């Protein structure tokens, strides 16, 4: 029969055709974002309204700046979890929130105000500060919300809450009232962490610790004026001095006691005319530092600390006001450093305060809000220290005044607390502050964690340690921007805080708004508490922002399924939420069922990201691809194209990271994920172009059944990983399956059938499977692929990938694996396939073949393996993508290459040899009877078409 020219056969091929673009089209992104986020959230809320919800409670981000990579990690992780739950058939409730009070916003608002009034005018009072801060927070919330939505985060954005909402503030005050009712709120003059740079008290959660802080340390001697009766007569003549060591000499004006330990041994040494009291075990280390080459004589040894308790000394810095001060016992005194005698300033040390208060020793702190000495620091010369900063030169000034009472001075590097906002050192300073009692409820709080799941598990011990380590929580702040501590003060400064007074304050705030606390006149009768006589003023302290966000559980009437934040929130939001919940919710248990923490983002060298270093990576740089080298094009009219793959690139980075540790982000990581995302797109484009309705009625081959088995295995593995919240394991499984099982095996083997044969196969099932696995991770890609499905599919009623649950079958029962041997045989078939490919590569390397179809295969197998390969005999050439396959017999040909592989019973050998037939000009297989003639299969297809 006449043969048509080869060029004409292309029109008879079923080549993949799809409108799916190789890269996202910016113009299409808004509609896909809306469908995969807002529309999906509304759909699941409506269609599953009767179901018990899965509640992910938002740890509110702080509304004081642009979104950074940490925001992306946090918000996208939450979104992926919510999408997994939707896929599992749950109704998700996720209402975003924002933390809007506190010092950083106040400072930023004031800075902005100063920029607007560079002439010095426009100094704001409390009301002006609040107005400026609210404006800034409102603007920031809108900007951050826009950014979150651009990342494809689905949520109930219309119900988003902020801590500055009136409704939130009223509920927060209600929690405070409940704690007042239980006697858990009290006011006390005691040392707290005070930030001179912020001019407010700080909680432990607001501190950062710097390991290389350098202090001026000193050894100072205090004259002993009296000893207990048991020591009289044992001491030689001469003035006895107690030697103390301090790393904060600026606190010496507030010294009110010296502590020893009952069980330590002390010695008295003579240096010149002085007798010095030092712990016995410290003498050898201190002799050189304190006395140099001066001869020192040991005059009394083995004096127990218990013998010294009750001795008296004077603090010479108090001058004429000097009175005898006691030597006391303290458990924390040791002889591991210093002199074994500890200077105690209960106004500047928490441990000192705890020891001194029961003994009736007053906590004095002659330091003002700016961290400068007051006139009372040096009673005999009020102006000598007044106004000098305790952190900047204060220690040196005090030591200068002490003169010869200073034995030695040295620099000491140690760990020291800093204000986490201003990055400047803090001090401990006794002030009147409001506290919440943690000690009486910590056991209840700890027991409520027993039923909580922690991811990673180490988070449990971390949170428990912070709860165990505190007895009180300083909840007052000396700022204007926040929720007021609803306390009233009489003319003597005595505070009134009762269930009734707080209830009345709440009722007025509910009616007039919270700013009325500052704007109303002090004698406004609306604020008068019924039954309370006399004149009272409203206080100016506001609540710790951790109390604000810690009461956010009031936004829901049920326990949250998940709380998810960074590891720093064990000492912050997780803890404040737990403590307020067990104190005031009236519900059993913790506010969360599962507590998940993620690490911090580091650059590719493992360094913390910092503006000063210049290693910050912004989320938009990942979205727009600007961190990667642009793609070169062949078109002369256009330059390089940025590798922009949209929000899915950012989402894939989050999903591929083991978030339980610190996360590395840099060009290598992003390039890897970028390549993977492009692979997903190319795979989907291939699948979209290869789906035909005729495939549904075409025969299911053993190769198809292998593909379905592999699909089912990977979908099960991915679903399990997602359910365990180990998303990176799921993505790794997807990548491995696409690379090894789908692209390199099934689709490669199927090209002949898809292009030249009946177009059958299980491509449609695979398409739905890919979308199912990618739906929680790259929803925009999934929506885009669904939008580009063939018209014949669009004409059918089909369940949207977002609406499918894991119970909805992707593979119909009549197309599932029926051969019980298939899964057992599959590894041996894959071994043989690898051997064939390896032998072909050797031939290809010697330029003997190009296409794999230019070869045939001969399998030499042990008898135990014959049955396996005979079951697939009619499909082996398709599986191996060669022109023919035979088992056994002579291995003949002008060339031959082989490779061994494992099979049942030992080793098999795959020989790659030249095909014996001729190349078919249509399908390119070497199975045609004559040169330039069609093979039988192609002849039949062409004649039918």
TrEMBL record:
This is Isoleucine--tRNA ligase, mitochondrial. Signal peptide: none annotated. It comes from the Eukaryota. PROSITE patterns: AA_TRNA_LIGASE_I. Keywords: Aminoacyl-tRNA synthetase, ATP-binding, Ligase, Nucleotide-binding, Protein biosynthesis. Its EC number is 6.1.1.5. Belongs to the class-I aminoacyl-tRNA synthetase family. Residues 38-663 form the Aminoacyl-tRNA synthetase class Ia domain. It is found in: Mitochondrion. Residues 1-29 are annotated as: Disordered. One of its GO terms (cellular component) is mitochondrion. The keyword Ligase applies. Residues 704-857 form the Methionyl/Valyl/Leucyl/Isoleucyl-tRNA synthetase anticodon-binding domain. It catalyses: tRNA(Ile) + L-isoleucine + ATP = L-isoleucyl-tRNA(Ile) + AMP + diphosphate. InterPro entries: aa-tRNA-synth_I_CS, aa-tRNA-synth_Ia, Anticodon_Ile_BEm, Ile-tRNA-ligase, Ile-tRNA_ligase, M/V/L/I-tRNA-synth_anticd-bd, Rossmann-like_a/b/a_fold, tRNAsynth_Ia_anticodon-bd. GO terms for biological process: isoleucyl-tRNA aminoacylation; mitochondrial translation. GO terms for molecular function: aminoacyl-tRNA deacylase activity; ATP binding; isoleucine-tRNA ligase activity; tRNA binding. Pfam families: Anticodon_1, tRNA-synt_1.
């Amino acid at each position: 029969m006449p043969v048509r020219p080869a060029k004409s056969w292309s029109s008879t091929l079923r080549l993949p055709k799809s409108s799916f673009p190789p890269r996202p089209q910016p113009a299409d992104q808004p509609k896909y974002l809306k469908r995969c986020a807002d529309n999906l959230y509304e759909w699941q809320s409506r269609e599953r309204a009767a179901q018990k919800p899965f509640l992910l409670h938002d740890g509110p981000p702080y509304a004081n700046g642009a979104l950074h990579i940490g925001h992306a990690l946090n918000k996208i992780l939450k979104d992926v979890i919510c999408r997994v739950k939707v896929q599992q058939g749950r109704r998700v409730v996720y209402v975003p929130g924002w933390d809007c009070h506190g010092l950083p916003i106040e400072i930023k608002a004031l800075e902005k105000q100063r920029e607007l009034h560079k002439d010095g005018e426009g100094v704001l009072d409390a009301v002006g500060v609040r107005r400026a801060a609210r404006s800034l927070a409102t603007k920031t919330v809108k900007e951050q919300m826009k950014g979150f939505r651009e990342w494809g985060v689905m949520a109930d954005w219309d119900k988003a809450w902020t801590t500055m909402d009136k409704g939130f503030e009223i509920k927060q005050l209600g929690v405070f009232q409940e704690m007042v009712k239980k006697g858990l709120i009290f006011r006390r003059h005691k040392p707290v962490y005070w930030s001179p740079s912020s001019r407010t008290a700080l909680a432990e959660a607001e501190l950062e610790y710097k390991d290389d802080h350098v202090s001026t340390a000193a050894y100072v001697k205090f004259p002993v004026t009296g000893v207990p009766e048991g020591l009289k007569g044992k001491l030689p003549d001469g003035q006895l001095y107690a030697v103390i060591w301090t790393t904060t000499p600026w606190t010496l004006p507030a010294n009110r006691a010296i502590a020893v330990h009952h069980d330590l041994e002390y010695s008295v040494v003579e240096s010149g005319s002085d007798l010095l009291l030092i712990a016995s075990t410290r003498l050898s280390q201190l002799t050189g530092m304190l006395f140099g080459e001066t001869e020192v004589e040991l005059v009394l040894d083995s004096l127990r600390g218990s013998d010294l308790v009750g001795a008296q000394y004077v603090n010479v810095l108090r001058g004429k006001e000097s009175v005898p001060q006691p030597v006391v016992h303290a458990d924390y005194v040791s002889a591991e450093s210093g002199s074994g005698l500890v200077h105690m300033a209960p106004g500047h040390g928490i441990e000192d305060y705890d020891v001194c208060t029961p003994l009736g020793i007053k906590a004095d702190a002659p330091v003002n809000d700016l961290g400068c000495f007051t006139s009372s620091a040096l009673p005999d010369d009020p102006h000598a220290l007044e106004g000098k900063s305790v952190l900047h030169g204060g220690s040196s000034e005090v030591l200068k005044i002490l003169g010869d009472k200073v034995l030695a001075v040295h620099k000491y590097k140690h760990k020291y607390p800093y204000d986490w906002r201003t990055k400047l050192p803090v001090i401990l300073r006794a002030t009147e502050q409001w506290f919440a009692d943690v000690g009486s409820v910590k056991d209840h709080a700890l027991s409520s964690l027993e039923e909580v799941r922690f991811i990673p598990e180490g988070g449990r011990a971390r949170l428990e340690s912070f709860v165990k380590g505190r007895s009180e929580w300083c909840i007052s702040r000396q700022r204007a921007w926040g929720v007021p501590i609803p306390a009233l003060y009489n003319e003597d400064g005595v505070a009134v805080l009762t269930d009734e007074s707080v209830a009345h304050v709440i009722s007025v705030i509910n009616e007039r708004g919270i700013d009325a606390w500052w704007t109303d006149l002090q004698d406004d009768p609306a604020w008068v508490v019924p039954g309370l006589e006399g004149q009272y003023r409203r206080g100016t302290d506001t609540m710790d922002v951790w109390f604000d966000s810690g009461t956010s559980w009031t936004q829901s009437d049920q326990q949250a399924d998940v709380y998810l934040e960074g590891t720093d929130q064990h000492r912050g939001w997780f803890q404040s939420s737990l403590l307020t919940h067990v104190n005031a919710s009236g519900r059993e248990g913790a506010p969360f069922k599962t507590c998940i923490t993620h690490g911090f983002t580091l650059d590719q060298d493992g360094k913390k990201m910092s503006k000063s270093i210049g290693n910050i990576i912004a989320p938009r740089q990942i979205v727009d691809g600007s961190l990667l080298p642009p793609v070169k094009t062949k078109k002369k009219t256009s330059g390089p194209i940025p590798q922009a793959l949209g929000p899915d690139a950012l989402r894939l980075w989050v999903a591929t990271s083991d978030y339980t540790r610190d996360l590395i982000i840099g060009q290598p990581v992003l390039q890897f994920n970028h390549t993977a995302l492009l692979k997903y797109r190319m795979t989907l484009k291939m699948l979209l172009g290869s789906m035909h309705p005729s495939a549904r009625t075409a025969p299911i081959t053993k190769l198809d059944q292998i593909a379905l088995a592999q699909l089912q295995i990977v979908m099960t593995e991915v679903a399990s990983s997602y359910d365990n919240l180990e998303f990176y394991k799921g993505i790794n499984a997807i990548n491995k399956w696409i690379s090894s099982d789908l692209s390199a095996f099934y689709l490669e083997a199927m090209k002949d059938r898809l292009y030249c044969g009946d177009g059958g196969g299980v491509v449609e099932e695979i398409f739905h499977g890919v979308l199912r696995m990618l739906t929680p991770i790259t929803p925009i890609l999934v929506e885009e692929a669904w939008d580009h499905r063939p018209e014949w599919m669009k004409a059918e009623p089909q369940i949207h990938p977002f609406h499918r649950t894991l119970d909805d079958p992707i593979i119909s029962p009549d197309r599932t694996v029926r051969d019980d041997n298939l899964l057992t045989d599959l590894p041996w078939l894959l071994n043989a396939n690898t051997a064939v490919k390896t032998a072909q590569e050797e031939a290809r390397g010697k330029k003997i073949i190009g296409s794999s179809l230019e070869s045939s295969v001969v399998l030499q197998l042990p008898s135990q393996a014959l049955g396996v390969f005979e079951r697939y005999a009619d499909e082996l050439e398709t599986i191996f993508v060669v022109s023919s396959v035979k088992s056994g017999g002579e291995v003949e040909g002008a060339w031959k290459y082989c490779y061994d592989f494992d099979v049942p019973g030992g080793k098999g050998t795959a020989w790659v040899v030249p095909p014996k037939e001729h190349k078919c000009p249509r399908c390119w297989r070497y199975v045609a009877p004559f040169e330039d003639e069609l093979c039988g299969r192609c002849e039949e297809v062409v004649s039918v078409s």
